[in-house]
Design a protein that fits this description.
Layout lengths: L1 E6 L5 H10 L12 E3 L5 E6 L4 H7 L4 E5 H7 L4 E5 L5 E8 L14 E4 L2 H11 L4 E4 L15 E6 L3 H5 L2 E10 L1 E5 L5 H20 L2 E9 L3 H7 L7 E4 L5 E9 L3 H11 L2 E7 L6
Parallel strand pairs: 1-3, 1-4, 7-8, 7-9
Antiparallel strand pairs: 2-3, 4-11, 5-11, 6-9, 6-10, 12-14, 12-15, 13-14
This protein binds phosphoribosyl ATP and zinc ion (ZN).
Zinc ion (ZN) binds next to loops.
Organism: Alistipes finegoldii
InterPro entries: ATP-PRT_HisG_long, ATP_PRibTrfase_cat, ATP_PRibTrfase_CS, ATP_PRibTrfase_HisG, HisG_C, N-reg_PII-like_a/b, N-reg_PII/ATP_PRibTrfase_C
Cofactor: Mg(2+)
């Protein structure tokens, strides 16, 4: 039986539980428990602080983990990055006071930079040949320059709102992160098979995101033209209608192309167009 570590509370908790649940795996939301048994899959769920997940997976306390790539890269424990999960996107950036005269990376020479990601920052500065003082602080990194603790910060940025409200400006985007599925590198054969079942479900969920299932009625004589407009997993499905000369056509369309395709199909005479949300796409 697999044991997966997820964040007990915080930004990745809810989306981790949602992804498991979409994959047919029921997970208790009780945040007071350390561990619980999942429904619908041979799995136990371990609720941890995100900082502890890479180590728990490296040590085999958990077989799998869902955690930000930033934590994996910072901690540098030996774990396999099995799959990118498409949520929790952010970047870790260098930011300086809005009024600073920033002129490129050389600005940081001899400067004090506050961060909760000293290893990622040290690797970046070493690669660029910049000699700076890295100050590790745990929380509220963004206030460090205002209270005189540092000249700059290296912190997670998502919308950029936190930087602006602290009078800072993002000057270098260093590391891009999203939630990832990590695995202990020494899983036995049974656990590898179960992990493959899990990633198969996750992949079909991620692939279906942004896809729509479209049904419409179309005059039979326009069918060939409609097929050139509609993609499909193989080709669109076409069914006869009781009314002579008409057919029903079904296809999967990427959300970004949806309206453009529908306008072209309407121009061909398509009627009764239904657009449905796709839950899974199994190739
Ligand atoms: O208690 P525990 O240790 O488990 O949680 P935590 O407080 O350490 O982490 P948490 O829940 O804040 O974040 C978990 C993970 O979410 C991070 O490791 C990232 O992988 C991811 N993530 C995505 C973010 C953000 N977006 C984010 N915006 N983590 C933090 N932030 C913070 C950031 O530190 C800054 O203070 O949000 C602020 C910036 O946001 P904007 O939108 O104002 O730019
Ligand atoms: Zn944390």
């Amino acid at each position: 039986m697999l044991r997966i570590a997820i964040q007990a509370k915080g930004r990745l908790n809810e989306q981790s539980i949602d992804l498991l649940s979409e994959a047919g795996i029921g997970v208790a939301e009780s945040k007071r428990k350390l561990i619980s048994r999942a429904d619908g899959f041979p799995m136990e769920v371990l609720y941890l602080r995100d900082d502890d997940i890479p180590q728990a997976v490296a040590m085999g306390v958990a077989d799998l983990g869902i955690v930000g790539l930033n934590e994996v890269a910072e901690k540098n424990f030996p774990v396999e990055r099995t799959m990118d999960l498409g949520f929790g996107s952010c970047r870790i950036s260098l930011a300086v006071d809005r009024t600073a005269d920033y002129n490129g990376l050389d600005y940081f020479r001899g400067k004090r930079v506050a961060t909760s990601y000293p290893n990622i920052l040290a690797r970046f500065f070493a690669e660029k040949g910049i000699d700076a003082e890295i100050h590790t602080i745990e929380g509220s990194v963004e206030i460090a320059p205002a209270v005189g603790m540092s000249d700059a910060i290296f912190d997670i940025v998502s919308s950029g709102g936190t930087l602006i409200s602290n009078g800072l400006v993002e000057v270098e985007k260093v590391f891009y992160s999203e939630a990832v599925l990590i695995a202990n590198p020494e899983l036995d054969e049974d656990k590898r098979r179960e992990t493959a079942q899990l990633t198969f479900r996750f992949n079909s969920i991620l692939e279906s995101r942004g896809m729509k299932y479209v049904l419409m009625n179309l005059p039979q004589e326009k069918l060939d033209e409609a097929i050139t407009i509609l993609p499909g997993m193989r080709s669109p499905t076409v069914l006869p209608l009781a009314q002579e000369g008409w057919c029903s056509i079904h296809a999967v369309i990427c959300e970004s192309q949806l309206w453009e395709r529908i306008e072209r199909l309407k121009a061909l005479g398509a009627e009764g167009i239904l657009v449905l949300t796709l839950e899974n796409m199994i190739r």
